[in-house]
Design brief:
With about 375 residues, the protein is an all-alpha fold. The protein is built from 16 helices and two strands. The protein has one domain.
C-alpha cells in the first residue's frame, strides 16, 4: 500500500539507493557494455555484472549480500518506532507476519506465479528469502536482548562452516564445496519443493538461509551504531575499522572455506559486510560529518522507494518507450553511442518516476 514516509537516516537511505542503483539502474547499460570492442576491459565489466560461475566475488555477488544487510538495518528502524509509539506486540506481530507473507507471495509472483504446473513453481527466490529473513529477524528483535543477535551472527557463520566442513552429503565427502557435491545442494534436492534455480537445488534454498540470517543480524548492528548517539565521525571510524577486520578475516578464512555467493559461505558474508561498512561509512561521512546530504540526494530518491525501484523495470517493459525516444534514425545518428544513450534514457525514466514519488512523499511498501 502507499503511505507517507517518515523521516529516516540519510546515510541509510543513500546506501539503499546505492545498492539498488547497482542492481537495477546499471542494467540498462548492459547492451552498451556488450557492444564494446572485445578485450580485457569489456570482459572485466561483463564479468562484474554477472554472478561468479562458482567460487569468487563480483559486483553482482556483493549487491545481493548488501541488500540482505540493509534489510537487517531497517528492522530496528521500523519496528523501533512502533515499540516507541506504544504499539502492542500483538499488532506488531500481525504487521510483521503480514509483510512477510505479502513479500513471499510477491516473490512467487515475480518468479512466474502460478503460470506453471504446481511442481514447476519456484518457491525459493530473492524476495522469498528476504521475507523469511525479515520474519525471523523481526521476531528476534522484538523478543530477545541485543546481545542475542550479536552472538547469533558469529555462531551462525561458524556453525554453517562446521556443518559443511564436517557433515558429508550421502555418498559424498565432508568439506565438498563443489557445485553438485555440497551439503546445501543435497538438502535442497531432498526437501525443497517446486522448481529450483539450479535444477536440483537453489542459491536461495534451505541451508544457505542460515548464513544469510547472520548477514541480516550484521545489518542490525549498523542500525544500532547509527542510532547510538555516538558522534558521526566516530561512527565512521568504527565502520571503517570493522571493514578492515571483516574483509581481512573473510579473505584469510577463504583459504579453507571459499568465497561463494550461491552457498552464502561465511567468508562471503564477512567480505560483503566489510564492503558495506566502507560504503555506509562514506555515506555517513558525507551526510553527517561534512554535512553535505544534498550530494547524496540522487541516491536517497532511489533508496526511499526500494521496492518500487526493484519491481518497476522487471514488471514494466520500458524498451518500447526508450525506442520511441532514441530509436530509428536517432539511433543511426548516434552510431556507437546509441546503446549508451538508450541506457541513460531508460535509467533516467526510472529515476524520474522515483523522483515523482519522492516529491509526492509516497513510499510504496507492503
Amino acid at each position: 500500500m502507499a503511505t507517507t514516509e517518515k523521516p529516516r537516516v540519510v546515510a541509510i537511505d543513500a546506501m539503499r539507493g546505492l545498492v539498488m542503483t547497482g542492481l537495477v539502474l546499471v542494467t540498462p547499460f548492459i547492451p552498451a557494455i556488450a557492444s564494446l570492442p572485445e578485450g580485457a576491459v569489456r570482459d572485466s565489466l561483463v564479468a562484474q555484472l554477472n554472478h561468479s560461475p562458482w567460487h569468487g566475488l563480483t559486483k553482482a555477488d556483493v549487491t545481493f549480500g548488501l541488500f540482505v544487510m540493509l534489510l537487517g538495518t531497517m528492522i530496528p528502524v521500523s519496528l523501533g518506532r512502533r515499540v516507541a509509539d506504544g504499539t502492542s506486540l500483538v499488532r506488531t506481530y500481525g504487521q510483521v507476519l503480514r509483510r512477510s507473507v505479502l513479500l513471499f507471495a510477491l516473490g512467487v509472483f515475480y518468479n512466474g506465479g502460478f503460470s506453471q504446473p504446481w511442481p514447476e513453481i519456484r518457491w525459493a527466490g530473492i524476495l522469498q528469502r528476504l521475507a523469511v529473513l525479515y520474519l525471523v529477524g523481526a521476531l528476534v528483535y522484538l523478543n530477545c536482548p541485543r546481545w542475542v543477535r550479536y552472538a547469533a551472527a558469529p555462531v551462525l557463520l561458524l556453525g554453517y562452516w562446521a556443518l559443511l566442513a564436517t557433515v558429508p552429503a550421502p555418498g559424498g565427502t565432508a568439506g565438498d564445496y563443489t557445485f553438485n557435491g555440497n551439503l546445501a545442494a543435497w538438502v535442497d534436492a531432498q526437501a525443497l519443493p517446486g522448481r529450483a534455480y539450479f535444477g536440483t537445488w537453489d542459491p536461495e534454498g534451505i541451508l544457505t538461509t542460515l548464513p544469510a540470517l547472520a548477514s541480516c543480524f550484521l545489518g542490525m548492528m549498523w542500525a544500532d551504531l547509527l542510532s547510538s548517539g555516538v558522534r558521526p565521525a566516530k561512527q565512521v571510524f568504527y565502520l571503517w575499522i570493522a571493514a578492515i577486520v571483516a574483509i581481512d578475516l573473510g579473505f584469510v578464512w577463504s583459504e579453507a572455506f571459499p568465497i561463494n555467493k550461491s552457498l552464502w559461505t561465511s567468508p562471503y558474508a564477512l567480505v560483503v559486510a566489510g564492503v558495506g561498512c566502507v560504503l555506509l561509512g562514506i555515506c555517513q561521512w558525507i551526510a553527517e560529518v561534512w554535512r553535505r546530504p544534498a550530494w547524496l540526494f540522487p541516491l536517497v530518491v532511489v533508496g526511499r522507494n526500494l521496492l518500487m525501484a526493484f519491481l518497476l523495470p522487471n514488471v514494466i517493459r520500458l524498451g518500447p518507450l526508450v525506442d520511441r525516444i532514441v530509436g530509428g534514425d536517432v539511433a543511426k545518428m548516434l552510431g556507437a553511442f546509441a546503446p549508451w544513450v538508450a541506457g541513460l534514457v531508460e535509467a533516467g525514466l526510472i529515476w524520474l518516476f522515483l523522483y515523482w514519488l519522492y516529491q509526492k512523499r509516497i513510499v510504496v511498501k507492503l
